[in-house]
């Protein structure tokens, strides 16, 4: 059963790559977004405060690290742990801005206010927190579902067995298979051969019976 604890590295490659990209986005967008006036206050690039660290940079780094592990590891338990951590970090992206105001130190742990018009502010909230977190949780759940299932191929690889195609065994003594013919057909063929050899068209067996004229000639002789 130890072999089932290993998975092909391709099993989590796509999910790991997506999580890596989303994690980098979540961790870096609050720092570089102000260059494009796409950010939360303070609208200055590379400004770090407690809100950005705990609500964006830390969960983004966790998701990126989990994605890198999923892409590279062949250990099923380690890959499952990485997917679970990514799901937790994604949930924190989506719910962190709602939970943080309930804490006593919520005055310093705030994401700030979105910069831009109403439409841009909605896009910023979705791409920075809620939408980003939902996407991360969804991808992590897909990866975790694939990792928890042990397929037939995984079990065969774990046992060191491979599918083989059975070949037909040769007949004993190297003899070829023959098709039996009816006995009657064989006798008829042998009888016809005997007639051709004797040069006669009469049946090979049975007596010749003379007609009336033949019997009269015999009696007059």
How does this model look, in words?
The chain is mainly alpha-helical and 221 residues long. Helices cover 59% and strands 0% of the residues. The chain has one domain (2-156). The protein has seven helices and no strands. Helix 1 (13-32) runs antiparallel to helix 2 and helix 2 runs antiparallel to helix 3 (76-99). The relative contact order is 0.13.
Structure summarized in a few sentences:
The protein is mostly helical and 221 residues long. It has seven helices and no strands.
Label this structure with key terms:
221 residues
Number of domains: 1
Task: Quote the beta fraction.
Answer: under 5%
Total helical segments? 7
Spans of at least 5 consecutive residues whose pLDDT stays below 50 are: 161-168, 174-185, 203-207
Determine the fraction of residues in helical runs and give it as a percent range: 55-70%
**Element-level helix/strand string:** HHHHHHH
Number of strands: 0
N-to-C terminal Cα separation, in Å? 107 Å
**Rough outline:** elongated
- The average pLDDT is 78
What is the C-alpha radius of gyration, as a whole number of Å? Answer: 44 Å
Helix and strand content put the structural class at: mainly alpha
Outline the biggest β-sheet.
none
């Amino acid at each position: 059963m130890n072999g089932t604890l290993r998975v092909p590295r391709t099993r989590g490659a796509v999910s790991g790559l997506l999580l890596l990209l989303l994690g980098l986005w979540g961790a870096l967008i609050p720092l570089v977004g102000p260059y494009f006036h796409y950010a939360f206050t303070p609208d200055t690039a590379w400004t770090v405060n407690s809100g950005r660290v705990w609500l964006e940079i830390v969960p983004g780094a966790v998701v990126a690290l989990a994605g890198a592990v999923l892409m590279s590891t062949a250990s099923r338990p380690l890959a499952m742990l990485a997917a679970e951590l990514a799901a937790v970090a994604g949930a924190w992206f989506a719910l962190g801005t709602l939970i943080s105001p309930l804490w006593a130190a919520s005055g310093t742990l705030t994401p700030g206010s979105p910069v831009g018009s109403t439409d841009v502010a909605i896009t910023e909230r979705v791409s920075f927190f809620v939408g980003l977190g939902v996407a991360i949780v969804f991808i992590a759940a897909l990866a975790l579902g694939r990792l928890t299932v042990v397929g037939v191929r995984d079990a065969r690889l774990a046992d060191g067995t491979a599918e083989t195609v059975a070949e037909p065994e040769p007949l004993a003594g190297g003899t070829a298979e023959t098709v039996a013919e009816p006995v009657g057909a064989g006798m008829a063929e042998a009888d016809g051969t005997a007639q051709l050899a004797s040069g006669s068209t009469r049946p090979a067996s049975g007596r010749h019976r003379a007609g009336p004229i033949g019997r009269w000639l015999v009696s007059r002789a």
